[in-house]
Amino acid sequence: MEIFSLKGKIAVVTGATGLLGRKHCEALAMSGANVIATDVNEPAVKQLAANLGQQHKGMVMDVTSKQSVTGVLEAIMNEFGTVDILVNNAAINDMFEKPSMAAELSAFENYPLDALQKSMDVNITGVFLCSQVFGTRMARQGRGSIINIASTYGMVGPDQSIYKNEAGEQVFYKSAAYPITKGAVLNFTRFLASYWGNKGVRVNTLSPGGVENEQSTQFIGQYSAKTLLGRMANPSDYQGALIFLASDASAYMTGANLVVDGGWTAI
């Protein structure tokens, strides 16, 4: 269907080598876009682009550095002369090196300030910088689609009970950093949509739910029980929504939050 086609479009994806980043790149490529996969992991992002096909590019980019982001835009403009789609996917989601310390360190009372700052640098500042640099180019062109990846935890508070083990012990807390930063992304989307609406740049949020990725059977069961569809997402479950937001199929949609969470936030 032509309305979903991205043929000839130049699409930039940040955090491209992550679990969902790879799927975003695959979906854009399948719909005809030339994908510019970006990440701080050079070998991984180069390999990802090679796997997608010769017309796609893998570039090193640090979303927290305006110089790095501007350098990637310049390279894209020199080769392609345009940028049409930006997927702000790069994000930090707390991981703790010592599982035995995870519950203690992730508890709000003990949560390290430097961990919060790292999340804000990537999840908020990174989205700001990439939108500023690539979005300004789109506004000058008079067209473009920016898709900010948020989360259900940008809309509702975490249910800490799903992070308990079979013995009822809290093995991990979903920290404040992720809801804080993803909530900010939602309102930043609204700001950009209102700011650039008259420039032909559409800005929307895609809010995914949890993805099954080798978690414990206990966690998968507890998470799935809270969704209306009774399961966690597959990594490919967001590809259709992404293409919808990137393409002319959503031409009259901006400032919106497309929730794809299996019904997690419906009740």
From TrEMBL:
Taxonomically, the superkingdom here is: Bacteria
Keyword annotations for this protein, in alphabetical order, are: Oxidoreductase
What SUPFAM superfamilies does the database record attribute to this sequence? NAD(P)-binding Rossmann-fold domains
Q: Which GO terms describe its molecular function?
A: oxidoreductase activity, acting on the CH-OH group of donors, NAD or NADP as acceptor
Q: Cite the PROSITE patterns for this sequence.
A: ADH_SHORT
Check the record and name the Pfam families matching this protein. adh_short_C2
Give the PANTHER family listed for this entry. 3-OXOACYL-[ACYL-CARRIER-PROTEIN] REDUCTASE (PTHR42760:SF133), SHORT-CHAIN DEHYDROGENASES/REDUCTASES FAMILY MEMBER (PTHR42760)
Which protein family is named in the record? Belongs to the short-chain dehydrogenases/reductases (SDR) family.
- Write the protein's name: SDR family oxidoreductase
